[in-house]
Amino acid sequence: MKKGKVTQTEYACIRGMMSNDIKVAAMAKQLDRSQEVVQKAVDSIDAETKRDQLIINKSAKGNKGVAIMTPQASMRIDDSRENREPADPSKIKRSIHTIHG
Q: DSSP secondary structure string, 37-81?
């Protein structure tokens, strides 16, 4: 049985097996990994997929760096901003430098 981190190739294989509805036990056997390691990778891929569904980081042309949010993601960010404590104005004032010339 292999030890160490799951490689990118193995992650790609796991993604493919997930799309074909292969069970974790069968994935572990094919990859020669323990079921716990494969289950952890499956959970990680699921979490990444859910996160990617909230925020779209590509335009229709495939340009990256564009942030287009779903309404749920926008509301989630708005809620987190409301719950944040206001910054101490004295800290802000100390970090602003004015150059007199």
A: HHHHHHHHHHHHHHHHHHEEEE-TT--EEEEEE-HHHHHHHHHHH
Interatomic CA distance for residues 81 and 48, integer angstroms = 23
Q: Give the DSSP letter of residue 84.
A: S
Type of residue found at 22: I
Long-range pairs for 37-40: beta carbons < 8 A, 24 or more residues apart: 37/6, 38/14
- Tokens representing 22 are 């292969």
Output DSSP code: residue 59.
-
Residue pLDDT, tens place only, 14-71: 999 999 999 999 999 999 999 999 999 999 999 888 877 777 666 777 777 666 778 8
Q: Contact, 43 vs 61, CB < 8 A?
A: no
